Sequence to fold (225 residues):
Amino acid sequence: EADIYQTPRYLVIGTGKKITLECSQTMGHDKMYWYQQDPGMELHLIHYSYGVNSTEKGDLSSESTVSRIRTEHFPLTLESARPSHTSQYLCASSEWGAASLRYGYTFGSGTRLTVV
Amino acid sequence: SQKIEQNSEALNIQEGKTATLTCNYTNYSPAYLQWYRQDPGRGPVFLLLIRENEKEKRKERLKVTFDTTLKQSLFHITASQPADSATYLCALRGNDMRFGAGTRLTVKP
Fold:
């Protein structure tokens, strides 16, 4: 079944640690996104990609980096976690053009990150 | 700056009634607007899209209107059920897709 997977679902980690949040999709979508979501707040775009070897920063890059070596895989890395990084991280993918309008974005279930 | 406002943080209604959620925006000229449903601990799920030249769109018990003069979209769920309880987000495309904070709907039996 075509879907988008995020691991881990929950992560508690100490300040200063390096972490990678995984995101994989089986739909063959070229466009992928990382959003940060806090309770009662808008989703904020962190990074996005148009396809393999394409990465762009959103309006909230939050000292994180991404890579897109394969179409299906779009991991997010925090080099040095801080308590301010505590949040829900959502990965999404979409098709190009008219198809993205018809079907919208497909989101993963998210990673709930707590930095202590 | 671009802003999306959804009417309230929470809306409580009785089963069988119509729920109406509001999405207002400023400093956008969106070609289309999307609505998503988000359940606790899950990512948003796409429900439907309405284009700027469409006044109204329906899908089963859902109805969306889009008034580009008022810069507002209304999202209606008719004959609401407890299973409709969730947070509903509107989204607009500016330079990228921006999502509102959502309205949490609770339908009581």
Remarks:
- Chain B is about 0% helix and 60% strand.
